[in-house]
Amino acid sequence: MILVTGGTGYIGSHTVVELLNNGYDVVIVDNLSNSKEMVVDRIEAITKRRPIFINGDIRDREILDEIFTNFDISCVINFAGLKAVGESVIKPLEYYQNNITGAVTLLEAMRDHKVYNFIFSSSATVYGDPVSVPVDETFKIGGTTNPYGTTKLFIEQILQDLYKAEPKFNIAILRYFNPIGAHPSGLIGEDPNGIPNNLAPYITQVMIGKRDHLNIFGKDYDTEDGTCIRDYIHVCDLAYGHVLAIKKLMENPGVVIYNLGTGKGSSVLDVLHAFEKAYGKEIKHEFVGRREGDITANYTKVDKAFKELGFKAKYNIDDMARDQWNWQKKNPNGYEE
Ligand code: NAD
Ligand code: WQD
Fold it and tell me: Ligand 2: which residues within 6 Å by Cβ?
C-alpha cells in the first residue's frame, strides 16, 4: 500500500490515478487546506477504484501513527505542502512550519514504524538561477530567492542527513519542472484559489472569461522571442514518473535524485500559442514589466531519468494545453459545485 500525502492536490490526485491504474493500493492523507474531498470521487470515476481518504495533517503524529499501524505501507510519497511562491515571502514561518515540520514529522513516524521508502516532491527552483541550460542533477543547488524554494532546499538536505544516519532509508528526490495540463478525462485538474500565480491556469481563466487578459511578464529577456523559457511537463507524465520511482526504490538505491521534465524549453508565447490552438482563436494578452524573481530560462536534461528510471515524457505542450482547457471548460469553477 502506498501512502500519498497531499493526494487530493493537483499533482497528488494525478499520481493516485496512475498508482491505482498500475495496481497499487493507496491511502491518501490530506488536510484539504488547498484541495477538496470531491477529488476522491473523481479519482474513483476515472479508475473505478477508490483510494482510502484520511482528512488529516502530516504534522499530526497521532494520525500518522494510526495510519502506519492500520495499513501496511511500503512507500510514502510526500506531496503535502504549501506552494505559493509570493505568499511564502509574506508568510515565511507558515511555510517553514508546514513544509519542514510536516516532512520531519512524517519521516520520524516512518522511522519509528520501520517504513523506509520515501519519495519527495522537490522542484527545479532548488537550482536558483542556473549558470547554463539545460540543467542536470549535478548542477549546484542553492540561491533560492523565496522561502518556498528554500523549504525544498532544506528538506533535500534533511533527507541527505537522514540517509547518512539511517542507511536503511531509500529516498527519491524528484525535482519537478513546470507541471501543467490535466487528466484527459477532464475530471481532475488544477484548481487554484483566487488569482492564479502560474501561467497555464491564468491563461485558461482568460479563455473561460474569468480574467480579461493575460499579462506577459517581460518581453526583453535574452531569448528568441524575448519571453522566459521553461520546461512544461504534462501532469500525467509527471505522475507516471512516481510509479517508476517506486520501482527504483525497490532496488534499495539509497538517495537518488531525478529532474522530471520533457527536456524541451518553451517560451511564454509558445505556451500561449498552444492554448490558442486548443481554443481556436486568439487569447487576449498584454506585455507588462518583468516579474520579480523570474529567471530567463530553465529546462532540464532528461538523460538520467531516462537511463535509470526509463522515464520519458509522452505529451507535448499542445497536448498539455488541450487537456488543461478541457478540464477548465468542464469545470469552469474548478471543484466548486
Ligand atoms: P497542491 O496544493 O495542489 O497539493 C498539495 C496538497 O497538500 C493539497 O491538497 C493540500 O491540501 C495538502 N496539504 C498541504 N499541507 C498539508 C499538511 N500539512 N498536511 C496534509 N496535507 C497538506 O500542490 P501541487 O501543485 O499538487 O504540488 C504538490 C507538491 O509538489 C508540493 O509539495 C509542491 O511544492 C511540489 N511542487 C509543485 C510544483 C508545481 O508547479 N505545482 C512544482 C514543483 C514542486
Ligand atoms: C511561468 C512563466 C512567468 C504568469 C513557479 C515557481 C516554481 C514552481 C513552478 C513549485 C514565467 C510567466 C506567468 C502570468 C506570465 N513551483 N507568466 N504571466 O515561475 O517558472 O515557477 O511555479 O515548485 O517554484 O517559481 O512558473 O507558471 O509562475 O511562470 O507571463 O500571469 O510564465 O513570468 O516566465 P515559474 P509560472
Answer: 83, 85, 123, 125, 149, 178, 197-199, 202, 214-217, 228, 230, 268, 291, 294
Q: Are 242 and 18 in contact (CB under 8 A)?
A: yes
Sequence-distant (6+) residues with CB within 8 A of 90 are none
Q: What is the pLDDT of residues 101-132, one digit of tens each?
A: 999 999 999 999 999 999 999 999 999 999 99
Q: Is 52 left (phi over 0), alpha (psi -120 to 50) or beta?
A: beta
User: What gap in Å lies between CA 337 and CA 330, rounded to an integer?
Assistant: 12
- The answer to whether the predicted template modeling score (pTM) of the entire model surpasses 0.70 is yes
The residues near 290 (Cβ < 8 Å, ≥ 6 apart) are 217, 218, 220, 221
Whole-angstrom distance, CA of residue 232 vs CA of residue 304: 18
Q: Which ligand gives the minimal distance to the CA of 213?
A: 2
* Separate counts of helices (H) and strands (E) for the chain: 12, 14
